[in-house]
Amino acid sequence: MIKKIAIFGSTGSIGVNALEVVRQHPNRFKIVCLTAHHNAVLLAEQALAFNPETVCIGTESGRKVLKEKLKGKNIQIVTGEQALCDLAREEDFDTMIGAIVGFAGFMPTIEAIKAGKNIGLANKETLVAGGDLVNRLMEKHKVQLIPIDSEHSALFQCLVGENPNSIRKLILTASGGPFRELPAEEFGSITLSRALKHPNWSMGAKITIDSATLMNKGLEVIEAHWLFGVDRNRIDVIIHPQSIIHSMVEFTDSSVKAQLGLPDMKLPIQYALAYPERLPNELESLDLKKIMRLEFHEPDRKKFRCLQLAYDALAIGGTMPAVLNGANESALGYFLQEKISFTDIPKLIETTMQNHSPIALPTLEDIIEADRWARSEVINRAGA
């Protein structure tokens, strides 16, 4: 039986890798919907290759490009944020790959869940900002969510068949990014070009910078809390420079299970699409003899302040994680424009969190407003 797939964020690294997985298994998966924010040229190429029923682009200029490049094709073209949410709710597909970067992926995922669509989630910000709300909606609408982040996919795989009550600890691994060994006193001289050079993974700019600050790992701690129902005090982060062990679970009998593999996002994407099956593929096999050694180090939460801020936001709860995420996205945007320094990112986030009065049990509207407020606070303080 062919599973119908919609990829929200098809021109980013996750989307591109997801299409490669589909390409390798044409008898198992069919693309019915592709979306992108502004890369209309690549979206058009993908549409010509996979012939979806609908494509969505974020800009009117992008729509014009699509109309020209898809002329004569029976592919519907829609534009804008509302069209994105409408597609998530109304398009006929079995599984959404949520690969839109940042909070922009929140509302389409919510709409897909309300419509009873299963989710392969790469957009961690959805659970960071609204984890409790998302979990309640998933239970109400009987939706299955399979994580695509390599770390959470690893935890998910380690927990298949296990009693949740037997979990002692979740252990998220982190590469440590490009500045793992850089002294804290040199962080002020970090340039954008240096921060964009991740040692192990090929990712988009936002996730790459989040990895450099370790905010990416902080967001993953919050995501793991909502995915697996484990308290923050039982979620550890450990630096593992080789990125071979993608995460581990320690159980109450002191045994530890780990999921290993070469750093390639096609593996967790394929697992999410095919679950509970495991499909063959052409990926390179892990040869531990070539790896030689696996290292582990404690992260420095003072040097990488963003990681501690994420734990703090989860401890406070309510709308605070949404504020953490919104402030981070806004500050990161300024850093990508080279308007603030690398060390300004955690400072702006922390100040924004300190000025926020969290709402304990937020509604959807509260979460959206917390995100908007946090971005506004950063704009005001960054001197836009």
At a glance:
46% of the residues lie in helices and 15% in strands. With 384 residues, it is an alpha/beta fold.
Number of helical regions: 16
Global shape:
globular
The N- to C-terminal Cα distance equals 52 Å
Fraction of helical residues: 40-55%
- Sheet with the most strands, sense and barrel status: 7 strands, parallel
Please report which band the strand proportion falls in: under 5%, 5-15%, 15-25%, 25-35%, 35-45% or over 45%.
15-25%
| Secondary structure: number of strands | 11
* Spatial sequence of strands, sheet with the most strands: 4-3-2-1-5-6-7
**Radius of gyration from CA coordinates:** 20 Å
Mean pLDDT: 95
Please write the string of helix (H) and strand (E) elements: EHEHEHEHEHEHEHEHHHEEEHHHHHH
Class from secondary-structure proportions: alpha/beta
Residue stretches low in confidence (pLDDT < 50, at least 5 long) are none
